[in-house]
Every structure is written in structure tokens, then in C-alpha cells.
Amino acid sequence: MIIELRGRGIVPGHAEGEALVSHETISGWGGIDPATGTIIERRHELYGVCFTGKVLVFPGAKGSSGWSAFFQSTRLLGTAPLAMVFSTLSTKSALGAVVTRVPAVSQLDQDPVATIHTGDRVTVDAYRGIVTVTTDR
């Protein structure tokens, strides 16, 4: 089955890969290890899971303005997600996507966290604000 979500491109670009979905917001400052691209927030549902090379689908950012600096570090260290798709647009999530320099889409016509599942094949066309999901469900 193919599902198409339409939204707003935040950082232009095109990427295709496997989805990693978080139902919880992600803390950049102290919530991720930029050296490995792993979520290290102890009570997070994805604790210990690496987002490097995945399309990271999540509700949005939480925590301080340091969120973007930690995600920028993932770009510099080669551990960044392939693309970002987030439900709630905030200055933290938008700036984080910009400094990470990965295609990013938000403000979609369907909740991406409810629609996309970890392991789905996702194409992010942030030029047009379109996220295409290929799933076996």
C-alpha cells in the first residue's frame, strides 16, 4: 500500500529510506548521543536506538534551544538522520532541521506519527512537501 502525506517543506531536499518512528518528542540536549546518533534519554521509548541513516518521524522537539546544536553535531559527525518528518513545527525543530541540513517536512495533512510505522519505506520530497510511505500493512 502507498500512502501520501502532504505538508510544508521546512528544509528542501529529497531522501528515501527506512522510517524510525517515535511517539514521544525527542530531547536534543542530553537526549541524544551525537557521536553515535543514538537516543540516550533513559525513559524514552527509543532508548538505545540509532537514528543514523533513517527517516526520523517524531512529534517534535523538547527541551532547550541546545536541541539544534546537538542535531548539528550529528551532521558534523556523520551520524545524522537521513531526513526528518515531524508533527509540530517549532523554532527548535525547524532550526534543528536547518542546521542538520537534511530534508524536513512538517504540518502534514495526516499525523505522521500515527500513519507511518518503523520499518516503512519513506520518500521525503521536501521541495514539494510530500511524504510518500510504502508499507505492507
TrEMBL record:
GO terms for molecular function: lyase activity. It holds the Pfam family AcnX_swivel_put. The keyword Phosphoprotein does not apply. Gene3D superfamilies: Phosphohistidine domain (3.50.30.10). Keywords: Lyase. Residues 26-105 form the Phosphomevalonate dehydratase small subunit-like domain. PANTHER family: DUF521 DOMAIN PROTEIN (AFU_ORTHOLOGUE AFUA_6G00490). This is Phosphomevalonate dehydratase small subunit-like domain-containing protein. It comes from Nonomuraea glycinis.
